Automatic annotation (TrEMBL):
Keywords: Cell membrane, Membrane, Transmembrane, Transmembrane helix, Transport
Membrane topology type: Multi-pass membrane protein
Family membership noted in the UniProt record: Belongs to the ABC-3 integral membrane protein family.
GO biological process, one term: response to zinc ion
Matching InterPro entries: ABC_BtuC-like (IPR037294), ABC_TroCD (IPR001626)
Cellular component annotations (GO), alphabetically ordered: ATP-binding cassette (ABC) transporter complex
Official protein name in the record: Manganese/zinc/iron transport system permease protein
Organism the protein comes from: Paenibacillus aquistagni
Pfam family, one: ABC-3
Places the protein is found: Cell membrane
């Protein structure tokens, strides 16, 4: 595959996995948790590096999952003690992210890990860092990691589709039916953490947040059915990745930033043109009823 092809495949895998997870975030009204976890996993990544002195491996995922769950637990703990949900998220994510930044500046040294890398990623380097896969050949490490995470996300969503649906729309009903709502919540937060760290090195925090929230928000404007929403969100993520790459090539600017910008374009198109919740449809409907 060509250099451009690997970049597009990597970004598309990010769009798919983040798009699927993002739908459940939107339905659970936890969009800001995506922003929080996408930043606080930095602390888990840095801590894992300080323990192992290696920038790749399963320990990075473990560190990210622990950081994501720590964020969730702390936010819930503060909220249960009277702090507003939004304030809890703001306090926890800025504090943990700041600790990660300080550790990078003071402890990491010359390793390929810095604040700019954290925010914007290094997707242009992805095609050069390859690993050998039997019967396939040389494949970028990020593609292998993102493919594995996408597979895990899809299996988790399909295997517990009814449970995700009920716990997202009506947690009280789910609890009355015997579904372990709290356990499902922390499993979901683990999926968010794994998805985030898998995309972190390639595209950075800014694009991770954009891919987790915006395609799902756009899909929500087009349909009320969960299955269709998941498909549309993943599709919008892939379109954003491809469109963003060519915008970056045209303007000679940041690839990750352009992909995040492309998610905004798709959301605006949906906001204006979706048949049920779009601005145009809301304007036309009263006109038709009155005529």
């Amino acid at each position: 595959m060509s250099y451009t092809g690997w970049i597009l495949l990597t970004a598309s895998l990010v769009g798919l996995s983040c798009g699927f997870i993002g739908v459940l975030l939107i339905l659970r009204r936890m969009a800001m948790m995506a922003d929080a976890i996408s930043h606080t996993v930095l602390l888990g990544i840095v801590t894992a590096f300080l323990v192992t002195r290696e920038l790749s491996g399963i320990h990075m995922l473990i560190g990210a999952i622990i950081a994501g769950l720590l964020t969730t637990v702390l936010v819930q703990w503060f909220h249960e003690r009277g702090v507003q949900q939004e304030a809890s998220i703001g306090v926890v994510f800025t504090s943990l992210f700041a600790i990660g930044v300080v550790l990078i500046a003071t402890q990491v040294g010359n390793a390929h890990l810095d604040v700019k890398h954290t925010l914007m990623g290094e997707i242009t380097f992805i095609p050069w860092e390859k690993t050998h896969i039997p019967w396939i050949g040389e494949v970028p490490e990020a593609v292998v990691m993102l493919s594995a995470v996408l597979l895990v996300v899809m299996i988790a969503i399909l295997a517990f589709y009814k449970e995700w649906k009920i716990t997202s729309f009506d947690p009280a009903l789910a609890a009355s039916l015997g579904i372990p709502v709290v356990l499902m919540h922390y499993v979901f937060m683990s999926l968010v953490s794994v998805t985030t760290v898998a995309a972190f090195d390639a595209v950075g925090a800014i694009m991770v947040v954009a891919m987790l929230i915006t395609p799902a928000a756009a899909a929500y404007l087009w349909t009320d059915r969960l299955g269709i929403m998941l498909v549309l969100s993943g599709l919008f993520g892939v379109i954003s990745a491809i469109l963003g790459y060519y915008i970056a090539a045209w303007l000679d600017t940041s690839i990750s930033g352009s992909m995040a910008f492309a998610t905004g374009l798709i959301f605006m198109i949906s906001f204006i043109g979706s048949p049920k919740h779009g601005v145009v449809a809301k304007w036309i409907r009263p006109q038709m009823l009155s005529s």
